[in-house]
UniProtKB/TrEMBL annotation:
CDD domains (alphabetical): 17beta-HSD1_like_SDR_c
Chain segments annotated as coiled-coil in the UniProt record: none
Entry keywords, A to Z: Membrane, Mitochondrion, NADP, Transmembrane, Transmembrane helix
Protein name as catalogued: Hydroxysteroid dehydrogenase like 1
GO CC entries: mitochondrion
């Protein structure tokens, strides 16, 4: 639109110069300018009207999409996830935070749950609690994803006879606090790769063939809103979440024709252990929901959007952030992360 306007203005200016050269009286010049202007004003009005219509249509579609994703499912009742996807759901990183809350939401809808995490005592407690509260079958697998490829054969063996309908790749780690890349230890870097990237890749590779065979299933990869912007002092964490986002979207198009739904879930800040280093983010507020609040909304988007924040308040934050130039986002994030790092070091 801007290029068309520039071209029209240039043509108008060129004709104006020719007209000025051809007349020697002001009245004649004025008449010629008026005649020339009428065409270009009409052309610019058409361009402006077309731009306005496009923006209005885009706004209407975005509004409808937001209502369809975040409002209508909450009013129309729960989808029968067992019928749509299958009897069992596997949730990694499921003894705390979003993973635990998501498992509880699935159980509330009648789905049997297999919990996967590294702490056996917590797994037993959460498994028992979900089973008793929601009257569903539960099981668990002890797995420390930081160990790398050695643990996946055992997981594959444990899942081989299950009808897995939903896989939630939630397990992930963050730094102890926001920090510079060179301050991260090699152990931390390998843990980020093994836990945030390899776990989702390998768990999907284990479960997906069974879903393809049944021609139905859902895979939810919990990414992060920071995957969409270069965020200093979140560098490696953000990069691992960008991998999950890309992996999810590409996988969806690869397997949608086979009845598989793949979702990239991109939460913003929720009050979980990952943000315990910061006193502001670790407290529930309008901007920072609890894991339970978040999961309640996120599960209702399953099957509706392949890429979503999962929560309407996070969606507003995400939309507003898209209007910021990259440099403004990056420098603002760098300033806030430096402040958070200083606070964490002082507390430590």
């Amino acid at each position: 639109m801007a290029l068309e306007a520039i071209v029209i203005a240039c043509v108008f200016f060129f004709r104006l110069v020719i007209t000025m050269a051809a007349v020697d009286r002001f009245s004649l010049l004025y008449r010629e300018i008026s005649r020339s202007c009428s065409f270009y004003i009409e052309a610019l009005a058409i361009v402006g009207a077309w731009y306005t219509v496009r923006k209005c249509v885009s706004l209407a579609l975005d509004t409808y999409s937001a209502l369809r994703l975040h409002v209508i499912p909450r009013l129309s009742g729960n989808t029968d996830l067992v019928k749509k996807y299958g009897k069992w759901a596997v949730v990694t990183g499921s003894t705390d935070g979003i993973g635990k809350a998501y498992a509880e939401e699935l159980a509330k809808r009648g789905v049997n749950i297999i919990l996967v995490s590294r702490n056996k005592e917590k797994l037993e407690a959460v498994s028992r609690s979900i089973s008793e509260t929601y009257k569903v079958e539960t099981d668990f697998i002890v797995a420390d994803f930081s160990k790398g490829r050695e643990l996946y054969p055992a997981i594959k063996e444990a899942l081989k006879d299950r009808e897995i309908g939903i896989l939630v790749n939630n397990v992930g780690i963050f730094y102890d606090y926001t920090d510079y890349f060179t301050n991260l230890s090699e152990d931390m870097l390998w843990d980020l790769i093994h836990i945030n990237i390899a776990s989702a890749t390998m768990m999907t590779h284990i479960v997906l063939p069974g879903m393809v065979k049944k021609k139905k299933g859902a895979i939810v990869n919990v990414s992060s809103a920071v995957c969409c912007h270069p965020t200093p002092m979140y560098t490696v964490y953000g990069a691992t979440k960008s991998y999950l986002d890309y992996f999810s979207r590409a996988l969806y198009y690869e397997y949608a024709s086979k009845g598989i739904f793949v979702q990239s879930l991109m939460p913003s800040v929720t009050t979980t252990k990952l943000v315990a280093f910061n006193s502001v983010m670790s407290k529930r507020s309008f901007l920072f929901p609890t894991a339970e609040e978040y999961a309640s909304h996120a599960v209702s988007t399953l099957g509706l959007s392949i890429r979503t924040t999962g929560y309407w308040r996070h969606a507003i934050q995400f939309t507003l952030s898209q209007f910021l130039p990259e440099w403004m986002w990056a420098w603002s994030a760098l300033y806030l992360c430096r402040v958070m790092r200083k606070q964490a070091l002082t507390a430590k």
